[in-house]
């Protein structure tokens, strides 16, 4: 188990290093001069040069890469070009929105999808199954920005139950804060729920046909116990994989959803930073997201080992 | 257990609803706060160190003040300078300053701050985005604490207007460095809180402020802007981003819709040295092909004023030149044939992100296709536009709104991205620089507009409208925006 964990950890570090190189190179060749964007069309040559020097953009690329990686290693992420505040602060401020939002969406989608998937599997090729599968089709087909707009029009504009967007802030209390994240979480979680419901259904269907299930049935174990003790436990592996992958999708989807609901989250930060050529923020946040996804995958790998000892024995 | 969880969930779900309802009722009784929606968030809050319009849209006149200021109609008014004398030769300006003015951190505003602010803006390491505003200034001196003297190296007829820009506001040596995050000015409002990505809150600093708190909330998405307004989460949008929904607000008695002008001349900018656009007949042909109203209807849902030259219709010197090259496709084809393109030609059209450009670009491409000019549309980001089009000279045509106030002078520059050269225009602009009499200035500006229209330098399309939407009962919001600002110093609820 420990050797397995160490191997996965090494893979994780190599992935991070490769990602940092890719991010840096992409941002280097991205057209657009940050100094020009900040100062606009009336900027004079001397002013632009002064600003480039101030931002450190006049140094060679290799040096800037080493400085960046060195800074990351000691936890110093640098200052945002546009906001002129430490990126660490920016990320921290945005995480208190994006992490709860993603978690809420994850919980909502799991709570909705797992029972639906199991329900569909147990009613294979019957009306209940078709119902769940059409819900899943629709859920996957609806773009979440559009679904978000529909939710706002119904629940905020027409009914007035929710704010139309924005984040109340944790200082306003847990209730209002979670309340303001609920619609975005639904918009974000629905497509994920649709995918997860499909995966759950097919995983449960597959295990339902397994020999040990037949054996259990033959022994006279009740359907409910079979489903919970034998089927679900074995269907957990593909489900865990999908939930782990979904986390990355949720972070990516939050860029769109945070824009529709004007939430000050990480997705909106990186979107703004790209358009404003705030390279420091883009590369730090991109790196942070990569790290987050890689770490979640690492955790999922370890979770497999707990759920099912076979992968580590085989590898 | 199950029941308890369900109950707990129900209570948690209802609590915030109760809380918000109470808060809303309390707000309705004594409304002295205002929530203004803005499309873009300012990158920082120092108007002397960046070109982003969003900076001025938060701080101009509210938080920072200059020697002069520009009002809703574009007129120059005294602000921190109460009056001024101009020498006979137009080279010395003596400003009498308001006394007893304090910065938000308690330090006094004196003539030394004027010297500091202007020297900083035009100095060697200055990162002021509008450094050319101060190009004519030779020295700035403090005569005594309430008198400052500016000496020019050449006459500058626009000096008082230039000093009214956000880029020329007064800052203090003690606090200037930190103004990006914690702006310290002399205005009636000071910074309350800036929740990055979400909102900036300004709070009243003294009794000049008519509101206790003004919140600028950043909502980039057009449909989210519409929803926020409809749900009354936002009280006002000074520059509403969803023109397609304006009719809905006009029909709703809760709101007031005020369509005014910005300083944004929206033009089909043309690379004047790149063939075939170096041939005036080709540019005239394009001018004869432009259907301005069709563009306005298609790109901006019928809102906005057609223009025939590079000048804002609300300015007293404006001349309507939209008839210089009237819509005439046969004439356009004849001109193209004369220039050697009887079957038209192919060219590219680079479009920056704003909807006026992206939507308008389709309209322009369809219009020019009527005379055989086939445009390839290339969408670009602002950063790319600045680098490729504005600095790199790498474009045929582009659509862009020139939002700088009274910027006709860009046509007289040696090297400007559309590469226009005209000795006539340079002569007019040189004369303008040394002319102070308003009537004579207006006549010169009229001549300049005619030269540009006749040379068909660019395709002049329309003046970008300022779509203001706010809740009934709000007074004092600007109709036009002669400078990019949301001046709330005169705004209150009835």
Written overview of the protein:
The complex is a heterodimer of chains A (315) and B (494). Chain A has helices at 2-29, 34-39, 45-55, 61-73, 87-122, 127-141, 144-158, 174-208, 211-219, 223-260, 266-275, 279-307, 310-314. By secondary structure, chain A is mostly helical. The radius of gyration of chain A is 24 Å and the shape is globular. The mean pLDDT of chain A is 85. Chain B has 494 residues and is of the alpha+beta class. Chain B is 30% helix and 23% strand. Chain B has helices spanning 2-29, 53-59, 111-122, 159-162, 222-230, 246-250, 280-289, 292-300, 329-338, 355-369, 382-391, 423-433, 438-455, and strands at residues 33-38, 68-70, 76-78, 81-86, 92-97, 137-144, 147-152, 189-195, 199-204, 213-218, 236-237, 255-270, 305-306, 346-351, 374-379, 397-402, 459-471, 474-475, 492-493. In chain B, β14 (346-351), α10 (355-369) and β15 (374-379) form a beta-alpha-beta unit. Chain B is globular and about 70 Å long. At the A-B interface, α2, α3, α5, α7 and α8 of A face α1, α5 and α11 of B.
The tally of domains of chain B stands at: 3
Oligomer description: heterodimer
Helix fraction of chain B by DSSP (H/I, runs of at least 4): 25-40%
CATH class of the largest domain in chain B: Alpha Beta
Q: Give the count of helical stretches of chain A.
A: 13
Order of helices and strands of chain A: HHHHHHHHHHHHH
User: Nearest-angstrom radius of gyration of chain B?
Assistant: 25 Å
Radius of gyration of chain A: 24 Å
Shape descriptor of chain A reads globular
What's the rounded overall pLDDT mean of chain A? Answer: 85
Structure at a glance:
Chain A has 315 residues and is mainly alpha-helical.
Considering the chains and any ligands shown, give keywords for the structure.
heterodimer, A: 315 residues, mainly alpha, 13 helices, 79% helix, globular, B: 494 residues, alpha+beta, D-Maltodextrin-Binding Protein, domain 2, Dipeptide-binding Protein, domain 1, Dipeptide-binding Protein, domain 3, 3 domains, eleven-stranded mixed beta sheet, four-stranded antiparallel beta sheet, 19 strands, disordered N terminus
């Amino acid at each position: 188990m420990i050797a397995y964990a160490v191997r996965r950890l090494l893979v994780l570090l190599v992935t991070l290093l490769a990602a940092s190189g890719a991010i840096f190179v992409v941002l280097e060749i991205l057209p657009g001069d940050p100094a020009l964007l900040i100062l606009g069309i009336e900027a004079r040559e001397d002013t632009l040069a002064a600003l480039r020097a101030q931002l450190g953009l006049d140094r060679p690329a290799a040096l800037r890469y080493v400085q960046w990686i060195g800074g990351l290693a000691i936890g110093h992420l640098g200052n945002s070009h546009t906001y002129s505040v430490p990126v660490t602060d920016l990320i921290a401020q945005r995480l208190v929105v994006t992490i709860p939002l993603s978690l809420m969406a994850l919980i909502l989608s799991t709570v909705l999808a797992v029972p639906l998937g199991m329900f569909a599997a147990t009613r294979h090729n019957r009306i209940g199954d078709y119902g769940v599968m059409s819900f899943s089709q629709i859920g996957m087909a609806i773009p979440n920005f559009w679904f978000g707009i529909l939710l706002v029009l119904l629940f905020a504009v027409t009914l007035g139950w929710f704010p139309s967007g924005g984040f109340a802030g944790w200082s306003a209390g847990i209730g209002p804060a979670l309340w303001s994240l609920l619609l975005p979480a639904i918009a974000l979680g629905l497509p994920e729920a649709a995918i997860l419901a499909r995966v759950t259904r097919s995983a449960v269907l597959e295990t339902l046909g397994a020999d040990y299930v037949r054996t259990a049935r033959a022994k006279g174990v009740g359907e409910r116990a079979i489903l919970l003790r034998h089927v679900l436990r074995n269907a957990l592996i593909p489900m865990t994989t999908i939930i782990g992958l979904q986390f990355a999708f949720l972070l990516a989807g939050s860029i769109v959803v945070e824009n529709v609901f004007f939430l000050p989250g990480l997705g909106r930060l990186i979107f703004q930073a790209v358009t404003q050529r705030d390279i420091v923020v883009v590369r730090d946040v991109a790196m942070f997201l990569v790290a987050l996804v890689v770490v979640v995958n690492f955790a999922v790998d370890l979770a497999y080992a707990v759920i099912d000892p076979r992968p580590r024995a085989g590898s | 257990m199950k029941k308890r969880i369900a109950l707990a969930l129900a209570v948690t779900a209802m609590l915030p609803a109760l809380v918000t309802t109470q808060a809303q009722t309390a707000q309705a009784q004594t409304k002295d706060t205002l929530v203004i929606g803005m499309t873009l968030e300012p990158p920082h809050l120092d108007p002397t160190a960046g070109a982003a319009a969003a900076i001025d849209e938060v701080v101009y006149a509210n938080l920072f003040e200059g020697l002069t200021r520009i009002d809703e109609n574009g007129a120059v008014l005294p602000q921190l300078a109460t009056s001024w004398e101009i020498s006979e030769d137009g080279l010395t300006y003596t400003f009498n300053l308001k006394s007893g003015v304090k910065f938000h951190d308690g330090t006094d505003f004196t003539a030394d701050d004027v010297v500091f602010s202007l020297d900083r803006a035009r100095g060697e390491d200055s990162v002021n985005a509008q450094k050319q505003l101060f190009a004519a200034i030779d020295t700035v001196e403090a005569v005594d604490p309430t008198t400052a003297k500016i000496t020019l190296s050449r006459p500058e007829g626009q000096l008082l207007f230039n000093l009214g820009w956000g880029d020329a506001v007064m800052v203090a040596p003690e606090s200037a460095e930190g103004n990006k995050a914690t702006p310290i000015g002399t205005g009636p409002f000071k910074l309350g809180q800036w929740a990055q990505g979400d909102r900036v809150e300004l709070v009243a600093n003294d009794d000049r402020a008519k509101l206790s708190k003004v919140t600028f909330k950043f909502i980039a998405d057009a449909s989210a802007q519409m929803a926020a307004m409809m749900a009354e989460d936002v009280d006002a949008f000074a520059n509403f981003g969803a023109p397609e929904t304006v009719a809905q607000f006009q029909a709703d008695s809760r709101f007031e819709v005020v369509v005014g002008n910005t300083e944004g001349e929206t033009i089909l900018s043309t690379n004047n040295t790149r063939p075939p656009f170096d041939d005036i007949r080709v540019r005239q042909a394009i001018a004869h092909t432009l259907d301005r109203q069709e563009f306005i209807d298609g790109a901006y849902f019928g809102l906005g004023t057609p223009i025939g030259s590079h000048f804002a219709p609300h300015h007293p010197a404006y001349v309507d030149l939209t008839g210089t090259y009237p819509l005439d496709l046969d004439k356009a084809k004849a001109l193209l044939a004369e220039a050697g393109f009887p079957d038209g030609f192919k060219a590219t059209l680079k479009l920056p992100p704003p909807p006026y450009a992206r939507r308008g670009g389709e309209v322009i491409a369809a219009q020019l296709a009527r005379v055989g000019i086939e445009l390839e549309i290339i969408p670009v980001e602002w950063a790319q536009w600045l680098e490729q089009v504005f600095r790199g000279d790498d474009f045929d045509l582009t659509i862009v709104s020139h939002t700088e106030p009274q910027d006709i002078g860009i046509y007289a520059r040696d090297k400007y991205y559309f590469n226009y050269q005209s000795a006539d225009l340079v002569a007019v602009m040189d004369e303008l620089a040394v002319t102070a009499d308003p009537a004579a200035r207006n006549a010169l500006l009229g001549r300049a507009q005619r030269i540009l229209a006749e040379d068909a330098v660019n395709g002049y399309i329309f003046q970008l409208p300022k779509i203001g939407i706010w809740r009934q009962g709000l007074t004092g919001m600007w109709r036009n925006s002669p400078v990019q600002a949301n001046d709330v110093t005169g705004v209150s609820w009835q």
